[in-house]
Amino acid sequence: DAGVTQSPTHLIKTRGQQVTLRCSPKSGHDTVSWYQQALGQGPQFIFQYYEEEERQRGNFPDRFSGHQFPNYSSELNVNALLLGDSALYLCASRALLSGTHYEQYFGPGTRLTVT
Amino acid sequence: AQTVTQSQPEMSVQEAETVTLSCTYDTSESDYYLFWYKQPPSRQMILVIRQEAYKQQNATENRFSVNFQKAAKSFSLKISDSQLGDAAMYFCAYRGYNTDKLIFGTGTRLQVFP
């Protein structure tokens, strides 16, 4: 059973460019959340997708957008990249077990460097 | 707004000994979940242990246990019989009852010496 996968593993972009990161959730999971983890910090919630819609959003500008596909995979898009966008981007997926009892599984992350 | 604070940037322990990592949080909610995650150099965030706020009994998972003090808003992690493979960043995290959003602390780097 494959866990959460993310691609690419690493990438380097130039300030002002646009980037797309991809996430495939764990089998049977239908909800995907994205987090940004700056160096030396804990992850910060960007947004969550369920049923192909953004359901919840953290304190991130509109330059950060996303999409969820019918197969539950998801993309994170960042426009007009800034040096401060350099971080590890984590994807987490989950399946509802019962009520509000569920576990989120994280992927290995994509390391984005903006130069 | 909820916050999570980890005041120990680094901790170290001898193999086979016990170590406790501290975490405090702030919330006005009465129902919530608390977690400890481990992040090794491979970067994958791994769930270590979970505590439901409505449960008075402290959670335990093999060598890992928590001391949950709801009134004090404290949630510490105890690792017994420490192993070299326990070396990693440990993050304390909070999740409200009706949300997927995890709020993380800044982490504690645990070193394990043979």
Summarize the structure.
The complex is a heterodimer of chains A (115) and B (114). Chain A is mainly β and 115 residues long. Chain A contains no helices and 11 strands.
Question: What features would you describe in this structure?
Answer:
The complex is a heterodimer of chains A (115) and B (114). Chain A is mainly beta and 115 residues long. Helix content of chain A is 0%, strand content 50%. Chain A contains no helices and eleven strands. In chain A, a hairpin with a 2-residue loop joins strand 5 and strand 6. Chain B is an all-beta fold and 114 residues long. In chain B, strands 2, 5, 6, 10, 11 and 12 form a six-stranded mixed β-sheet that branches. In chain B, strands 3-9-8-7 form a four-stranded antiparallel β-sheet, with no helix packed on it. In chain B, strands 1-4 form a two-stranded antiparallel sheet. In chain B, strand 7 and strand 8 (64-69) form a beta hairpin. The N and C termini of chain B lie far apart (41 Å). The interface between A and B is medium-sized, with 26 and 22 residues.
Question: Keywords for this structure?
Answer:
heterodimer; A: 115 residues; mainly beta; seven-stranded mixed sheet; four-stranded antiparallel sheet; globular; B: 114 residues; six-stranded mixed sheet; 12 strands; 0% helix
Summarize the SSE layout with pairings:
The complex is a heterodimer of chains A (115) and B (114).
Chain A: E1 5-7, E2 10-13, E3 19-24, E4 31-37, E5 44-50, E6 53-57, E7 64-68, E8 74-78, E9 87-94, E10 104-106, E11 110-114
Chain B: E1 3-5, E2 10-14, E3 19-21, E4 24-26, E5 32-39, E6 46-52, E7 60-61, E8 64-69, E9 74-79, E10 88-96, E11 102-104, E12 108-113
Parallel strand pairs in B: 2-12
Antiparallel strand pairs in B: 1-4, 3-9, 5-6, 5-10, 7-8, 8-9, 10-11, 10-12
Helical amount among residues of chain A, as a percent range?
Answer: under 10%
The coarse overall form of chain B would be globular
What is the overall number of helices of chain A? 0
Q: Helix proportion of residues of chain B, in percent?
A: under 10%
Mean pLDDT of chain B: 96
Q: Please, what is the oligomeric state?
A: heterodimer
Tell me the structural class of chain A: mainly beta
Q: First CA to last CA of chain B: what distance?
A: 41 Å
